[in-house]
Design goal:
Blueprint (H helix, E strand, L loop, with lengths): L2 E9 L28 E2 L1 H14 L5 H5 L13 E3 L2 E8 L7 E4 L1 H13 L19 E4 L5 E5 L2 E7 L3 H9 L6 H8 E3 L2 H10 L3 E7 L6 E10 L6 E8 L11 H12 L4 E3 L10 E8 L3
Parallel strand pairs: 5-9, 6-8
Antiparallel strand pairs: 1-12, 1-14, 2-4, 3-12, 4-5, 4-12, 6-9, 7-8, 10-11, 13-14
Helix pairs in contact: 4-5
Length: about 290
């Protein structure tokens, strides 16, 4: 028997979860799904971050939950199954107002399917449909209709009833003002328009290495690094099972409790690289069945 939970991750600083290979002119691109090209943080990276946090806390249960050290990996598997950190809301600059949290029907359908698979509270929200000949429509929760500019795209904002959806999204953000902020900033666009923004609206920063003697850039020491911006919202699915080691037997419920009740006594998780320059910090919101 498994116990499940959903972790909402609200990026408070930019995230660089690197793909490990060049992509065109970008030397250090972020991880992306191959079929959608949406940004993602792969489950192995997320599980590694969770384990690192448990190691920092010197949790006595970390080997039973995450598995033994690499040198003894064949002893037994861990008891915690961790999904990818999937994209939910992408912050996109707007030429007409404050930035917008942008999503699309495909992402919302995926969220609904994940909530059902994890057997959490009912995902009873309506997902809007877009006609292929109306890709320039953008659905918003407030009454501010008219022209809406997101990056280089001009949309016609159309008011929609998004209250139920906003309540669910707010639970994954752990902000006191999440509902009010989403009512002002949530935008739903056509899947095709979102794909373009998810691919080309992420920040790409130039980095250089300076020669300490000449105070000029070292030859060849210029590179471009992509990141997910602060305020990105992702979510992670957790499945807990009973431990597989005879030394420390725990039920699935106990395994999940170690993560949701103990690991996040401070509700923060660092994902990806560049930790020493403040990147990768996420506020964690925990959603379990009945919560």
């Amino acid at each position: 028997m498994t116990h499940t939970a959903l972790l909402g991750l609200l990026a408070e600083t930019s995230i660089h979860a690197g793909a490990g290979q060049m992509a065109g002119v970008i030397d250090l691109p972020i991880q992306r799904e191959a079929h959608t090209e949406w940004p993602v943080v792969f489950g192995s990276s997320v599980k590694g971050a969770l384990r690192t946090l448990a190691d920092e806390q010197q949790a006595s249960w970390r080997f039973a939950v995450f598995g033994p050290e690499t040198s003894n990996a064949s002893d037994h598997a861990g008891a915690l199954l961790v999904s990818d950190a999937r994209l939910l809301l992408l912050p996109v600059r707007s030429l007409t107002s404050h930035f917008k949290w942008v999503t699309c029907p495909a992402l919302l359908n995926r969220l609904k399917a994940d909530i059902k698979r994890l057997q959490l509270s009912d995902a009873d929200f309506v997902i809007p449909e877009f006609d292929n000949d109306k890709k320039e429509i953008a659905l918003v929760a407030n009454a501010a209709t008219g022209a809406l500019f997101l990056e280089e795209f001009k949309f016609t904002a159309k008011a929609a009833d998004l209250d139920t959806l906003i309540k669910i999204l707010a639970r994954l953000m752990d902000r006191d003002d999440a509902v009010a902020a989403l009512k002002q900033q949530l935008v739903i666009v056509h899947d095709d328009r979102f794909k373009h923004m998810a691919k080309f609206a992420t920040p790409v920063n130039a980095h250089v290495c300076i020669d300490n003697k000449t105070k000029t850039v070292k030859p060849g020491a210029l590179w471009y690094e992509e990141s997910l911006p602060a305020d990105t919202v992702l979510y992670v699915g957790l499945h807990a099972q009973a431990t597989r080691t005879e030394k420390e037997k725990k039920t699935a419920g106990e395994v999940l409790s170690h993560i949701t009740d103990e690991l996040f006594s401070r509700p923060y998780l660092q994902l990806g690289g560049n930790e020493t320059v403040g990147m990768g910090w996420c506020k964690v919101a925990i959603c379990k069945a009945g919560s």
